[in-house]
């Protein structure tokens, strides 16, 4: 060691010279190409798609814990919210589960630092002539967009958070351990970041790279969340901010809508099952490639063989509009009273058939989601042909529409409706509906759906809105938002629910609307009930199954239309027709108002205390 130390002293002049072969902070910031490389390092954190390999974070909730919402249910006890403050700083001890509770972000400011560092270095590059004004404006816009993106997700989870618009010095403990800033201030800063981004990012920076429209689309998402959060959680004291954020959601969406670049020109299933981007609906599309070792596992968990721990429940199935544009309770479509999946595929909005296998399965609720695979993939479960690698394990190569036009127009129409209902905004018009909900309903149908007899859904008419009894049912009453008094707002919310199944959107929606209580079976019994199954017809299905076995006596239960239940006793197979009850189903632990926000972990509290600082915990924790 002594010899080594002496040798370091003797060659200190050489050690002080910058490396000619390795990049560091001193020689990296010299070109736009290097800036692009730095930004590309964040794409997998923000534009996740199907994630990668076995990864689940921010990807569709098809397997493992699934999406934490009222759309899906599982056998045994339903997943619960946090019951106590966890110790772990980033909830590592709970793996991916913290994410499914919020659909948002962990208490981790590493990415905030990354984008603040980029903003700082870009300014230096501009000063020394390494970037043109146009290059600087674009990349500075990208950095502000990603900082706003990161803060939006952290705020969605925790509310008030420390805000940093600069790189924090390693020796500045007052800055590192500052108290939380009000979310109103933080999100106002985020709005300013988004304004700057949309004004400066290039209209086109290459296929599937961040551009102005991608930034505006995500900005509309986060501003809609924030505006409605103030309405349903914080009351009249934040009316001005709610109005401002909802107005921004409208204007960001209109930036995209007015561009004329995007439209609904491809069928629903192809958006998620194609290997290459098809049509003009996806603003950004994540592609995968076996050659580049970039694959995922979500098609395998949609291939009809792999298990889906959580599946759609009766609450979700009841939400689907019928093809005549009416809820099932008032529809006059032929055979609308049948709950057989084969019949629902023909009587409901086409997204039902495109989302689910149209026959019952052995899943916990009897229905299986095939939304995230192409039409060919599930057929290998019964056709006797060896399944190609792209449909199994974690070698799947179908791509994902990271952000799409449907969300843009649904963010837009909801924000406009909320502005009108509560903040003096202009009334929603039929033209508005035609640009949004009705435009989505004009999506093409693929050949397989047409061959089955699937038809497009009738347009939503402002002068003849459906009056769905579920809108004011007792199950809608909860501690925060109450019933939905506006039939139009109810239909807008329904459209989002049909459109985004398992895409980690519903959990964000019911949190911002104050509707977590709908996940409780005691409030909403249909979340503990599955799809309709006639156990006598299963031998005739494409993929037959038999659950009426000696091992399942006393375990298989169906619920009849009148609400009564029948349990399989070994001799009553003929009567086993009804809504499948998940095995050993139990309601989740009661969700409380405190569950709308995650707690600050004890690791963080202790880190503050060890340095002589304090940080405020979230209410109720």
Describe this structure in words.
With 621 residues, the chain is mainly α. It is built from 22 helices and 8 strands. Strands 5-8-6-7 form a 4-stranded antiparallel sheet, with no helix packed on it. A hairpin with a 5-residue loop joins strand 6 and strand 7. Residues 1-16 have low confidence and may be disordered.
Mean pLDDT across the residues is 94
Number of strands: 8
**Gyration radius over CA:** 26 Å
Strand content: under 5%
Query: Helicity, in percent?
Result: 25-40%
Q: TL;DR of this structure?
A:
With 621 residues, the chain is mainly alpha-helical. The chain has helices spanning 2-10, 12-15, 32-40, 43-46, 97-102, 110-127, 133-158, 173-176, 183-200, 212-234, 239-257, 268-273, 314-319, 341-347, 350-355, 405-422, 430-435, 437-440, 447-452, 487-499, 506-512, 602-610; strands at residues 72-73, 282-286, 311-312, 400-404, 532-534, 557-559, 565-567, 577-581. Among the domains are: 32-49 and 79-259, Serine Threonine Protein Phosphatase 5, Tetratricopeptide repeat (Alpha Horseshoe); 69-78 and 313-368 and 465-613, no CATH class.
């Amino acid at each position: 060691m002594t010899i080594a130390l002496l040798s370091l002293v003797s060659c200190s002049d050489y050690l002080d010279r910058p490396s000619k072969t390795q990049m560091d902070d001193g020689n990296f910031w010299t070109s736009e190409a290097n800036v692009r490389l730095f930004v590309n390092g964040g794409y997998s954190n923000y534009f996740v798609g199907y994630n990668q390999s076995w990864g689940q974070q921010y990807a569709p909730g098809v397997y493992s814990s699934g999406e934490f919402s009222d759309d899906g249910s599982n056998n045994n006890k339903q997943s619960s919210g946090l019951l106590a403050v966890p110790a772990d700083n980033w909830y590592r001890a709970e793996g991916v589960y913290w994410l499914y509770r919020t659909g948002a972000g962990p208490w981790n400011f590493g990415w905030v630092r990354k984008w603040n560092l980029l903003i700082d270095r870009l300014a230096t590059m501009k000063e020394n002539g390494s970037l043109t004004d146009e290059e600087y404006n674009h990349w500075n816009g990208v950095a502000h967009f990603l900082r706003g993106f990161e803060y939006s997700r952290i705020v969605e989870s925790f509310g008030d958070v420390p805000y940093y618009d600069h790189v924090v010095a390693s020796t500045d403990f007052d800055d590192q351990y500052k108290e939380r800033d009000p979310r109103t201030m933080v999100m106002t800063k985020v709005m300013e970041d988004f304004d700057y981004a949309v004004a400066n990012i290039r209209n086109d920076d290459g296929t599937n790279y961040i551009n102005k429209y991608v930034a505006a689309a995500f900005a509309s998402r986060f501003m809609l969340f924030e505006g409605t959060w103030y309405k349903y959680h914080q009351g009249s004291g934040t009316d001005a901010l709610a109005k401002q954020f909802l107005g921004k959601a409208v204007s960001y969406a209109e930036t995209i809508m007015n561009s004329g670049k995007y439209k609904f020109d491809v069928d629903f299933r192809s958006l998620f099952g194609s290997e290459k981007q098809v049509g003009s609906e996806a603003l950004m599309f994540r592609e995968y490639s076996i050659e580049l070792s970039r694959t995922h596992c979500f098609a395998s968990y949609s291939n009809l063989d792999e298990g889906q721990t959580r599946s759609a429940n009766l609450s979700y199935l009841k939400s689907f509009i019928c093809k005549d544009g009416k809820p099932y309770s008032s529809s006059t479509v032929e055979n609308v009273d049948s709950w057989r999946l084969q019949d629902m595929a023909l009587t409901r909005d086409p997204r039902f058939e495109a989302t689910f296998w149209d026959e019952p399965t052995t899943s916990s609720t009897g229905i299986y989601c095939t939304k995230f695979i192409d039409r060919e993939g599930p057929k290998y479960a019964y056709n006797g042909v060896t399944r190609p690698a792209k449909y199994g394990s974690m070698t799947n190569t179908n791509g994902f529409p990271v952000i799409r036009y449907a969300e843009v127009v649904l963010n837009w129409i909801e924000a406009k409706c909320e502005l009108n209902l509560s903040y003096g905004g202009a009334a929603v018009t039929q033209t508005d509906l035609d640009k949004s909900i009705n435009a989505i309903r004009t999506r093409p149908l693929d050949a397989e759906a047409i061959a089955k007899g699937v038809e497009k859904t009738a347009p939503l008419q402002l002068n003849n809105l459906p009056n769905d009894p579920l809108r004011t049912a007792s199950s809608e009453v909860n501690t925060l938002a109450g019933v939905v008094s506006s039939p139009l707002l109810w239909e807008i919310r329904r459209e989002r629910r049909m459109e985004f199944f398992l895409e980690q959107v519903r959990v964000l929606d019911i949190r911002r609307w104050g509707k977590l209580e709908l996940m409780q079976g005691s409030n909403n019994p249909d979340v503990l009930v599955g799809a309709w199954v006639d156990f006598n017809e299963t031998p005739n299905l494409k993929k037959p199954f038999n659950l009426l076995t000696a091992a399942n006596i006393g375990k298989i239960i169906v619920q009849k239309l009148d609400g009564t239940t029948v349990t399989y006793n070994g001799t009553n197979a003929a009567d086993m027709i009804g809504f499948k009850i998940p095995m050993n189903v139990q309601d989740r632990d009661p969700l409380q108002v405190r569950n709308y926000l995650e707690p600050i972990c004890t690791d963080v509290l202790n880190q503050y205390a060890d340095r002589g600082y304090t940080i405020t915990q979230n209410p109720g924790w």
